[in-house]
Amino acid sequence: MNKISVRLADWHKDNADIHRIRSAVFVAEQHVPPELEFDAEDPTAVHFLALEGDYPIGTARLLPDGTIGRVSVLRDWRGLNVGDALMRAVIVEAQNRDLTKQMLSAQVHATPFYERLGFRVVSEEFLEAGIPHVDMVRDSREIA
């Protein structure tokens, strides 16, 4: 396996790769309707691509208010710390933009992953696109 890297993505230039990854993970695997997966916030979000060599294998986005979302890694690369690398890059970028409070809606099964990164659950469980979620928050000022 090649080295995993994460870079900022350009929504227009990298759209095909972002769309391919999110469609595979959310639309095909998790049956999220495409009209819910791709929304009006995509063009103004900061996007990230995780790559193995030059091949995009994961993506995430950061909204101007510090909300992180659409975190997705292709099935064959899960369990290889790609999600960790992706999230760490998003957190660093958020902090560089003075977004000390990062928020996300996590699928319930993924909460331990986000807790390892300093997020804490701040809501009751709810359904989003038919999948159980919780809201989570990470405040960089509280984390040493």
From TrEMBL:
<protein>
    <submittedName>
        <fullName>GNAT family N-acetyltransferase</fullName>
        <ecNumber>2.3.1.-</ecNumber>
    </submittedName>
</protein>
<dbReference type="Pfam" id="PF13673">
    <property type="entry name" value="Acetyltransf_10"/>
</dbReference>
<dbReference type="InterPro" id="IPR050832">
    <property type="entry name" value="Bact_Acetyltransf"/>
</dbReference>
<feature type="domain" description="N-acetyltransferase">
    <location>
        <begin position="4"/>
        <end position="141"/>
    </location>
</feature>
<dbReference type="GO" id="GO:0016747">
    <property type="term" value="F:acyltransferase activity, transferring groups other than amino-acyl groups"/>
</dbReference>
<keyword id="KW-0012">Acyltransferase</keyword>
<dbReference type="InterPro" id="IPR016181">
    <property type="entry name" value="Acyl_CoA_acyltransferase"/>
</dbReference>
<dbReference type="InterPro" id="IPR000182">
    <property type="entry name" value="GNAT_dom"/>
</dbReference>
<keyword id="KW-0808">Transferase</keyword>
